[in-house]
Amino acid sequence: MVHVDEAGSGFVEVLLSNLVLTCVLLLACYAAVRWYVRDSYRIGGFSQKHVFITGCDSGFGNLLARQLDQKGFRVTAGCLTEKGAADLAAATSPRLQTLLLNVTDSASIRSAVEFVRREVGERGLWGLVNNAGRSVPIGPTEWMQLEDFTKVLDVNLIGVIDVTLQFLPLLKKAKGRVVNVASILGRLSLTGGGYCLSKWGVEAFSDSLRRDMQHFGIKVSIIEPGFFKTGVTSVDLINADLKRLWARLPQDVKDSYGATYLDDYIKMQGFSMNILCCPDISKVTWCMEHALTAQRPRTRYGAGWDAKFFWIPLSYLPSFVSDFVVNVLLPSPKDKASS
Q1: pLDDT of amino acid 2
Q2: Where are the transmembrane segments (predicted)?
């Protein structure tokens, strides 16, 4: 009789534990399906919505401008060069308009705001995409001078802030969207120079902007791309600038790194970039488009499989883990101190 009772109670325990597990799994599945359905809802009236994009000469901005134009949005594309503007205009419908924009020049930004104001009228600006950016100078911190940091910060951070502040009145009219392009390097500082600093700044600025502007119906999203093949990640551009930085170093600093360090750095960085950089930049522009068209845009978008499954998870691990990854990807100086 005792054995029967024990067997019966054991069966009940197994049944209950399995029931709890089943309920948890069903709730998780329900939550995932509900999130997916909500995430798929889109706004309408694209033809009545104006979007302004910076950095449209090439890369993410160029592709996004063409994507949105094909969907009927009224796109104004800011380009740094006349050639970039002309090439984009030739590849799109007459509905898309281009203008020259230097995000480091407040007067240039004001001119762009006035142009867009005339276009949008009382409807206001639906979307602002801060995409313009630069990477170089980038490399070991000791190789930098102050102006090397400011060259990048002026474009990637101060430019984003200036453009956003000047366009905010038009965005408030439309209760629109701000989409800021950061990077996984805004979570992990993998190299020296202004690039990582600027992207950490974009993350912080976007968070404070989102909290402040949610009261006015403005939604702010951050795009965090992994490594993609664009002008920003051009190995030739980065290597040429590394050689410039190396050439101006004092001899004692060069000696501390070793005669072969520059070549080793360029070789290992080139090898890493060729492996990591994805040619399909539509993975990034899909995120940008979703942020502009979803009824409930996400706060952050990890763009690319490397961002989702490697870099972003890595950013949550202890620092010694990310330090190890960087040490694997880049060479060590000759005069490296023993630990």
Answers
A1: 46
A2: 15-37
